[in-house]
UniProtKB/TrEMBL annotation:
<comment type="function">
    <text>RNaseP catalyzes the removal of the 5'-leader sequence from pre-tRNA to produce the mature 5'-terminus. It can also cleave other RNA substrates such as 4.5S RNA. The protein component plays an auxiliary but essential role in vivo by binding to the 5'-leader sequence and broadening the substrate specificity of the ribozyme.</text>
</comment>
<comment type="subunit">
    <text>Consists of a catalytic RNA component (M1 or rnpB) and a protein subunit.</text>
</comment>
<keyword id="KW-0694">RNA-binding</keyword>
<feature type="compositionally biased region" description="Polar residues">
    <location>
        <begin position="41"/>
        <end position="56"/>
    </location>
</feature>
<dbReference type="InterPro" id="IPR014721">
    <property type="entry name" value="Ribsml_uS5_D2-typ_fold_subgr"/>
</dbReference>
<dbReference type="GO" id="GO:0042781">
    <property type="term" value="F:3'-tRNA processing endoribonuclease activity"/>
</dbReference>
<dbReference type="Pfam" id="PF00825">
    <property type="entry name" value="Ribonuclease_P"/>
</dbReference>
<dbReference type="GO" id="GO:0001682">
    <property type="term" value="P:tRNA 5'-leader removal"/>
</dbReference>
<dbReference type="GO" id="GO:0004526">
    <property type="term" value="F:ribonuclease P activity"/>
</dbReference>
<dbReference type="GO" id="GO:0000049">
    <property type="term" value="F:tRNA binding"/>
</dbReference>
<keyword id="KW-0378">Hydrolase</keyword>
<dbReference type="InterPro" id="IPR000100">
    <property type="entry name" value="RNase_P"/>
</dbReference>
<dbReference type="InterPro" id="IPR020568">
    <property type="entry name" value="Ribosomal_Su5_D2-typ_SF"/>
</dbReference>
<keyword id="KW-0255">Endonuclease</keyword>
<keyword id="KW-0540">Nuclease</keyword>
<comment type="similarity">
    <text>Belongs to the RnpA family.</text>
</comment>
<protein>
    <recommendedName>
        <fullName>Ribonuclease P protein component</fullName>
        <ecNumber>3.1.26.5</ecNumber>
    </recommendedName>
</protein>
Length: 132
């Protein structure tokens, strides 16, 4: 599970990453990454729950889009859980202040975690390589 401060939740955050970020597509997913400080959350905004430390300039945040095209609710939630688990382990690869949106494609339904991990790694490699 991703900690609360590492999740994208607001529509504006998703829109910012989708419009300004780099994109890399694979057979099962599309990854959008807005690198660097411009991708961080509004520094004046604090986390709403009392136990949430709130976003910081250094945090890398992630959000997920799994539409009904992927499958019924059971399938969508399984895909989202798989992606959350895989992204959590890969967030340290990204520069501080980055934001990630992972959009699952219909082909993600029923795929193994290994397949999703391979596609996710390939997308991250492509985005990070384009940054250089």
């Amino acid at each position: 599970m991703l900690p609360a401060h590492a999740r994208l939740r607001r529509r504006e955050d998703f829109t910012r990453v989708l419009r300004s970020g780099n994109r890399a597509g694979r057979s099962t997913l599309v990854v959008h990454v807005a690198l660097g400080p411009s991708a961080s959350a509004d520094p004046t905004r604090t986390g709403s729950p009392a136990n949430d430390t709130g976003p910081t300039e250094e945090s890398v945040r992630a959000g997920f889009v799994v539409s009904k095209a992927v499958g019924n609710a059971v399938v969508r939630h399984r895909v989202a859980r798989q992606l959350r688990h895989l992204v959590r382990d890969r967030l340290p690869q990204l520069p501080a202040g980055s934001a990630v949106v992972v959009r699952a494609l219909p082909a993600a339904a029923g795929q193994s975690s290994e397949t999703l991990a391979r596609d996710l790694d390939g997308a991250f490699r492509r985005i990070l390589k384009a940054r250089r």
